[in-house]
Amino acid sequence: MEPPDQPIYIVTEFMCNEILLDYLRHGSGQELELPALVDIAAQIVFGIAYLEHEHYIHRDLEARNGLVGENDVVKIANVDLAHIISEGEIFSIKWTASEAAIFDKFTIKSDVWSYGILLYQLVTYAMTNREVLDQIQRGYRIAWPKNCSDKIYDYI
């Protein structure tokens, strides 16, 4: 797939709050309880379903690519539709399905994988990369988040 000769512009509505990552870490997102987090997760999955229905793959689903508006309305942003990963290129490995990371094969299934990691970000209020690396070095593996119900954990 060849990149287009001209850049692609995507115009979106104005979202009055910060990106989802900052909202969860530092903003009023820290005060959200599980029902509100589940609502945000549902909004994101509806966005993914829409992209899939239109035959697009996001390829970079994570909290830093969510925009938060009034009443905790969340929209998926940074839709990199025509992106081709080249050798040596850096991408968000923490959110990337193994087939995408190893074989550069992105599908809706790799978006679903990333969505699972994004769900974990939601219920942990978006730990930093440093916090994640420190925990991995100490042998930590993803555990059951304290405010995560059985049903939500089954999806993660």
Report on the structure:
- This protein is mostly helical.
- It has a single domain (20-155), classed as Transferase(Phosphotransferase) domain 1 (Transferase(Phosphotransferase), domain 1, Orthogonal Bundle), CATH 1.10.510.10.
- It is 40% helix and 4% strand.
- It has helices at 20-25, 34-53, 98-103, 108-123, 129-137, 150-155; strands at residues 66-68, 74-76.
- The protein has a two-stranded antiparallel ribbon with strand order 1-2.
- Helix 2 packs antiparallel against helix 4.
- The chain is globular, with a radius of gyration of 16 Å.
**CATH fold category name:** Transferase(Phosphotransferase), domain 1
CATH class: Mainly Alpha
Number of domains: 1
Kindly provide the radius of gyration, computed on alpha-carbon positions and rounded to a whole number of angstroms. 16 Å
Low-confidence stretches: 79-86
State the strand order across the main sheet: 1-2
Strand content: under 5%
Number of helices: 6
CATH-assigned homologous superfamily: Transferase(Phosphotransferase) domain 1
Amount of helix: 40-55%
Task: Tell me the total number of β-strands.
Answer: 2
Return the CATH architecture.
Orthogonal Bundle
Alpha-beta content class: mainly alpha
Brief account:
By secondary structure, the protein is mainly alpha-helical. It has helices at about 20-25, 35-55, 100-105, 110-125, 130-135, 150-155, and strands at about 65-70, 75.
